[in-house]
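quick one, 175 residues, struct below
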Amino acid sequence: MSQPKQKPECDSVSGPAESAVERPEYSGMTMQELSAMETVYRPGLFDGKVVMVTGAGSGMGRAMAFLFARLGARVVICGRREERLKETRDGIKRLCDRDMDYTPLNIRDADGVKNFISGTFDKYGAVDVLINSAGGQFSQEAIEFSRKGWLAVIDTNLNGTWWMMQETAKQWRER
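---
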């Protein structure tokens, strides 16, 4: 038996775009579009939980941060572009009345990842969910990738994801 879809708990807002920043590339749904989406999850499903989302400045990371905030989680986000992280934080505050912390972070930096994760655990006492959404690629044919470009993709998509998982798992085991 399927559950009926839930109305959004956050305010659905129509009107001008939430940011004056021009973005030539696609970066996912706007905060208004996210706030208008229905969900099959019950309100408060993640009350009292801490959710950490990488790559939350745009795309799927932003959408997941928004959904978990709607469902009651305390959301902590990171990504490379501070301006976009602020947009995510401010949009969720405006539409869901939920505060969140953000940290500019390149997940390729293993020491930075370790500091971010230990700081998050120290501040909140736990992290219940880790969403690895940070990633990168080049919009060109694979045979045109430079060696440097390919290594950057691997370092982010493979190594960065690994650093996040490994450090989080270490904290889970220790606590």
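The first strand starts at residue 50 and ends at 54.
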